[in-house]
Amino acid sequence: MKKNMKAILSQIYSSLLLMLLAGLLFSCFSTNDPGDEATPPLIQPVSQQEPISPGHRISIPHDADRIPLSFRVISNTGLRQIRIDVHSAFDGHTHGRTSQQAFFVLLNNDDRINLDDLGNPTDFSVSLEDNMNVFLDDRNPFIDEGFLPLAGPYHFAIMATDINGNQTQYRDNTTYHTTFYLQRPYAPGVEIFFNNNDGLTGKISKTDHSLSTDIVFIWIKKVLINPELPHQDGALITEKLWGESNWRHITRPSVGDVLPASFPIDLSLLTSNIEAFHLLGENEVIYVWVEDERGNITVESIQ
Amino acid sequence: MVEPNNSISSYNVHNKILILSRDSLKNSNSNSLYLFSKNYHVKKQQINEKRDLDTTAVTYKKLFVNVNRNDSIPGASNLVLQPDDILLEEIVIERNGIIDRLMDRSQPTVFIDQEFLDRFHSTALANSLSRIPGVQSLQLGVGIAKPVIRGMTFNRIIVNNKGIKQEGQQWGADHGLEIDPFDVHEIEIVKGPASLIYGSDGMGGVINLKERRFPLRNGQNVQLRSMYQSNNDAFSQSLFWEGRENEWVWSSRITHQDYADYRVPASEFNYAGFVLPIFENRLKNTAGRELHASASGGYHTQAFRTIFNLSSFNQTAGIFPGAIGIPRAYSLRHEGRHRNIELPRQENTHIMVSNNTQYTFGNSQIELDAGYQYNQRQELSFPGLHGVDPNIDNDLALGLYLQTKTINGRYAWNGNQRQLIFGFQGQWMDNNYDGFEFLLPAFRSTQLGLFHYHVWDISPKTILNAGLRYDRGTHDIQQHKQPLFDRGTLQPTGEFELRNPDVVREFQNLSGATGISFLPSEKTNIKINLGNSFRYPNAIELASNGIHHGNFRHELGDPNLDIERGFQADANFIFSNNKFLIDFSAFYAFYQNYIYLTPTGTFSTLPSGGTLWQYRQDDALFAGTELFIQYELIENLHINISAEWVNNINRNTRFPLPLTPPLNLRNEWAYHRKVDNKFVKKYSLGLDLVYFAPQNRVDRNELTSPEAFLVHFNSGIDFQAFERSLQCIISINNAFNVPYFNHLSRYRLINLPEQGRNIMISIKIPIFSSI
Prior knowledge:
The complex is a heterodimer.
Chain A: H1 2-26, H2 34-37, E1 42-44, E2 59-60, E3 66-68, E4 71-74, E5 79-88, E6 104-105, E7 109-114, E8 123-126, E9 133-135, E10 148-149, E11 152-162, E12 176-182, E13 189-195, E14 199-205, E15 215-224, E16 235-243, E17 265-266, H3 267-271, E18 284-292, E19 297-302
Parallel strand pairs in A: 2-12, 6-10
Antiparallel strand pairs in A: 1-4, 3-9, 4-8, 5-7, 5-11, 11-12, 13-14, 14-17, 15-16, 15-18, 18-19
Chain B: E1 17-20, E2 32-37, E3 42-46, E4 60-66, E5 90-94, H1 98-103, E6 109-112, H2 114-119, H3 125-129, E7 135-139, E8 145-149, E9 157-161, E10 164-165, E11 187-191, H4 195-198, E12 205-209, E13 219-229, E14 234-245, E15 248-259, E16 268-271, E17 274-277, E18 288-300, E19 304-318, E20 345-361, E21 364-380, E22 396-414, E23 418-434, E24 443-459, E25 462-477, E26 480-485, E27 492-500, E28 503-521, E29 524-535, H5 539-543, E30 545-548, E31 553-556, E32 564-576, E33 580-603, E34 611-634, E35 637-650, E36 664-674, E37 680-692, E38 708-721, E39 724-733, E40 758-769
Parallel strand pairs in B: 4-5, 9-12, 31-34
Antiparallel strand pairs in B: 1-5, 2-3, 2-4, 6-11, 7-8, 9-10, 11-12, 13-14, 13-40, 14-15, 15-18, 16-17, 18-19, 19-20, 20-21, 21-22, 22-23, 23-24, 24-25, 25-28, 26-27, 28-29, 29-32, 30-31, 32-33, 33-34, 34-35, 35-36, 36-37, 37-38, 38-39, 39-40
């Protein structure tokens, strides 16, 4: 009886083992062809003559009331959503903190183009002729009437998803992203020059605009950039700070040396003892970041 | 107390432990024999009650023989000593706990001893285990890793720490096991479904961290273990004290670890079209500090044993800035210091108090495990500009605080050919949170499980087991309202957004498993197991609604998720003789309502939210194999070959599931020798060749990973100095400093290569011993 049972159980379990191995060999683990199914949307210029707008590291002039947009998004399987995002880069991408600023707001944009608005879901484009913009006044839903956008560096991104959930991403650069500098007449006035004899010179001051306020912070940094990647921030060589910033930043303290009491500030006086600002080698860039009391930032660079 | 003696008649049972010296077993009435090989690979052989041991095969350092009956140390009178044929230092026959005896019946199980852990020590325990076929580690940082068993991790595997299920995995992917890697002495890894004994979450397997074996004789030991690792200039010290005074036993440990930014074999990496520098080949802000302490103590008699445990784990570890935001060149530069821990960082604390009590009477045995755990995880970073109070004055982004109370009980009746076990498990959890970000709401959860297990020795060579389990669980999740802030002025609007409503869920589940262990010949063991596992959806899957910065996405729970169930078949084949061992396992599993995160295809409405991903569930298939071969080429020289392969598919999307480990192959050459020398007692040398195949089977939006080939060296020496027996271990990991990606690493997301060459030097110094 016991032997029979053992034999039966042996047979049962041997069979199960064989079935298991057979299942492993012939199991249906074949996946979909990942080709089109897994390819994220592609963001590219509308044409060779019309690059993506805004371009990398451009400055938006003092008098501009909008940032024109131009781009094309292609998807083999069909687009689901396109997002055009603008947010401040005042804090080095940690999105640190700010404080209440009378009259001023941070510039934002959060346009979403949904499937229903796409027309052709596999190929959507916006050219300069289409007059699609990021507005810099109260036509922008994030700027109430009577408010003005704070001047300074902003991050801009175009992102897209398709109907399968594939998405453009920062990590593989399929999301288009850059930094632009919003210049405003009420932001600090900065003029910089460089020559081999005097090094960095220039003038920092309030402007004549009625909303211009006193300078509270100056940050000068020299970086080494990769010429093949001009949109990249570059590696820091040296930096120097004066005053106290409105914006907590990831890479630098918020407080530096005492600012000169008199305005306009002569840059050569600030940098005369800093040798690094008297030399400018190949692929080196000096950035001058100046803030006023209300948090407006002007960034000028020289190469 | 036992005094080792060559005469079997002199053995004495003390606290259920029997020591025999310089002997082999002629005949044992035990069911399981575990062989811990000299080269630190672990293998196992299950033998029959009446089976003779092949003594010529015994080239192993230590034997643990499970005793499966209460009424005696079975077969002890038949143990025959053959002192000259074997190299055994000692044989320990121990009556293990009820669970230990159950799990080995029909499932692939691996045992790891202290020497293995010493030799392959890592800053994180999960990394040490990744040498075992079927086990890998999910890298979350330098000292932070989660174990992966057969492609499953997080809440799909259980870490059972001295009888209590270790909690903290429900908070997602950003933190590792909160266990002092020095305070682990013996580990049992059960591969495959383990819900029958362990309840919810035991889908992929169990890592069972055993209680320490206390000294068998009266006296005390004090021991220091110091370690240096070159890659991140890590200094570790662990001071250990243990003792025994008649029936009273105790041990305690304090561990300190301090490590700097770690090095990678690359000077730059590519991210988002940027070529970003890695200054001095070191990743900024990956330094960390840890301080852990633990103590155990209790009372042992032959029939009664109660041990109290207290442990405290404290870790502060930096997070590479790019891992939670877009890395920029200027945020990656060191400021001349490699040991400073800046923002972002995580601060983790885990405190556990537990008791394990065992009482034996007649043919019966009762066990009770009770524990209280407190997990505190704080993630600190710059307050976000978007959606965060501008007046916030601290850096606490996420604070998660979990209290867990656990009680487990088992009763075993041991008959002549049958063993009946009845057990229960109860758990109560209370989670709270703070911080300026929101991810997981406050919740309370309860779980209660009742199970019965039946073991039937059908014949001397066949053991059948089967069990049934009923579970009931609840989640009571509180709603969360997040204050809204104007995106332009950043000032509070006075309005609130309901991130998640109140969620109350109840679950019930009936599960079962059966298996057989069969010995067709003296050298062969076949195990087959059919198991049904389950997992309650956890609170984060039901109700999370926030941004996961590490993955650049907004993760959204689904309060309507159902229980996830698995139906798995396992087969395990072991053959061994005196020179050769093969251990092959295969599994095939169908998962019903497998829960996973998937992109919705739309963007988050939260500022900086990226795309919106939501938890959903579909059926999935898993299959895989593990192979371990050991061959003694010449005396003392072993060749080990191991391989593991996992395959899976989401049956709805027809895509693989994310974070599936790639096929990997390992070839180890290990030479071990004992010498009769005044100074040197034994030494070992090892060469380890590891190949990771490319992983191209990836889920949507997941990166593929290229192949990698790594070479490791290790060596060890036991020697006499200063009238002490010291142990020194030197190993070189990634000896050729090869840049490679770990498909399971968090840093894979940002194209960062793994750790470069790491030279580890460890020394174990006995400071005092009166045993």
